[in-house]
Specification:
single chain, 5-stranded parallel β-sheet, alpha/beta, globular, binds D-ribose
Amino acid sequence: MKVAIASDHGGVQIRTEIINLMQEMQIDYIDMGCDCGSGSVDYPDYAFPVAEKVVNGEVDRGILICGTGIGMSISANKVKGIRCALAHDTFSAKATREHNDTNVLAMGERVIGPGLARDIAKVWLTTEFTAGRHQTRIGKISDYEEKNL
Ligand code: RB5
């Protein structure tokens, strides 16, 4: 599996934590910034490039972190083919892989700490989609995208 990861200035600490986790798990990753130091950046400028890498097949999954995770998740979900989950607990992280086959995970560094973020990312990275009736449901999302975008 290959993962693209990015954060804005509000998510640098968790991004570093998740990069460390992926190194430990021997998961191939692309770090797409931000290289923002103490400066402020705009989360859509990081969410869209990561989401595009997922839909064009350069990577399998994306992970996005901002202050709340909300801006990143809204932005990523604007990209056709992206199913991004904002998850701040491990139950949701597992369920959203099993039920929604999410291809992007968003988290908020002003909401949770790095330890919980690590646990969430680990569960999300290692849980498989269960398909079956859930495939029908995500198929309806894809059909809607095809007709309306
Ligand atoms: C940046 O101040 C903050 O708005 C951003 O990190 C994120 O929380 C937006 O949803």
